[in-house]
Amino acid sequence: MRLRTDGSFDLRYDNSFALKQIEEGHYSILSRAPTTDADKPGPSKKGKTLPRVITLGGDHTITLPILRSLNRAYGPVTVIHFDSHLDTWRPKVFGGSPSEVASINHGTYFWHAAQEGLLAGDNSSVHAGIRTTLSGPSDYEEDGYCGFEIIEAREIDAAGKGGIDGIIRRILDRVGNSRPVYLSVDIDTLDPAFAPATGTPETGGWSTRELRAILRGLESINLIGADIVEVAPIFDTNAEHTTLAAADALYEIMSIMLKKGPLSNMLTEGHVNDSGGEL
Ligand SMILES: [Mn+2]
């Protein structure tokens, strides 16, 4: 929306343009020098140490332009995705795909990301907290083609699987400690009792205590960026449960990034990126 000096405004809405704006905005921040170790080699395609960008939303579709931006800087990345939903649905299955623009939405963006080659091709990505309704068993098969392993919310209670520690171990085993990893957190991964203000709530989710403990357990991973999305403050309780949960998840993510230190450390820990690129 553009506000003119005479107070009138002009409303323009174009999803394709908006997606490109988000990608360019993210890439512009990613192109800035980080405060620490800007002069040291890092894991990006051009061998530079880049800042970590954390994005807050809003509709989960924004993860697609963010992954496009990261792909320009790092190449394909491994993703840890906390959500109650898969978000790897084919456009025909989710949303009906009435047009090319409408085929990109908050349930299909990972399918597009996989099609565009933005996700690491070594089957290293993982969903955590899944408990979605399905259009059929093929949803899980499609998800596997996109490169994800699925950790369901209820698995935290499965006998012999080790509770919170068991979930952490499965995520660590899947993504490893040497790859560049992007973290995307849909607030609906939490139970609606803890985060009611979101577009597509699903019962049977994790508590804020469980999510925070799991995030804290991921400190050995090389996180190159993150988002927390689908927070809808207008629907929140008077006590702002959802906003509070998102803010504290953000605190945990920033803490593990700080503890890990600048991304230049990845090179001394064995990660090498020898492909050519823009940054
Ligand atoms: Mn979701």
From TrEMBL:
SUPFAM superfamilies: Arginase/deacetylase (SSF52768). InterPro entries: Ureohydrolase, Ureohydrolase_dom_sf, Ureohydrolase_Mn_BS. Coiled coil: none annotated. Residues 30-50 are annotated as: Disordered. GO terms for molecular function: agmatinase activity; metal ion binding. Transmembrane segments: none annotated. This is Agmatinase.
